[in-house]
Design a protein that fits this description.
Layout (H helix, E strand, L loop, with lengths): L2 H22 L5 H24 L5 H18 L5 H24 L2 H8 L9 E2 L2 E2 L2 H17 L6 H29 L2
Antiparallel strand pairs: 1-2
Length: 186
């Protein structure tokens, strides 16, 4: 599936998940709601699996897939969900920063200069590589997803989706470390 098709499928899946949730609480639409909700989850899982399979060759796709999901969720939030809105906005901004650093890591000369601006110890490093905005975005999002997974009563298919999204972020970080090593000649 091409990039635009994959991102559109993610966009549509969030719409179905949201619509399904609403219908599940609407008398006479409960059955349709459950089916719509489950299909949205299944489509999202499939989309995220497709994105993950491309992590080593198209890291931007993994980040764009996650950001598409987040932005769509943000649009569907009720205005009273201020903590959720704040969290999703922060996630989106951190993924914007992650996309910016992807441009830099592809240029070995530039990235070697950037690497020298990071201390060689402590929290300034992630697996001995600069703990830049890409890693920070991934680490924060992993925490966000793990916190959601800890909530009781989550639908098992939704847990599969959250687990797949978490796996994608882990895969993205692993692929990114390889990009860092290549740029730094390690």
């Amino acid at each position: 599936m091409d990039r635009d098709g994959l991102l559109l499928k993610i966009f549509d899946s969030v719409e179905r998940i949201n619509q399904g949730r609403k219908w599940q609480n609407t008398i006479g639409l409960e059955s349709n709601g459950r089916a719509t909700y489950q299909q949205g989850l299944i489509d999202a899982i499939d989309s995220f699996q497709s994105a993950q399979s491309q992590a080593a060759v198209d890291l931007k796709l993994v980040i764009q897939a996650e950001q598409t999901f987040i932005l769509q969720e943000l649009l569907l939030c009720d205005s009273t969900e201020t903590d959720t809105i704040s969290s999703l906005e922060q996630a989106s901004m951190s993924f914007d920063d992650a996309m910016r650093v992807l441009e830099v890591v592809g240029d070995p000369i530039l990235y070697k200069a950037v690497e020298k601006s990071y201390p060689t110890y402590g929290k300034s490093r992630y697996n001995k590589m600069p703990n830049d905005s890409f890693h920070k975005a991934c680490l924060a999002h992993r925490t966000r997803l793990r916190n959601i997974l800890r909530s009781p009563g989550i639908d098992l298919t939704e847990k599969q989706l959250l687990t797949q999204r978490l796996t994608n972020i882990v895969s993205a970080q692993s692929a990114y470390i390889e990009m860092q090593k290549t740029s730094l000649g390690i």
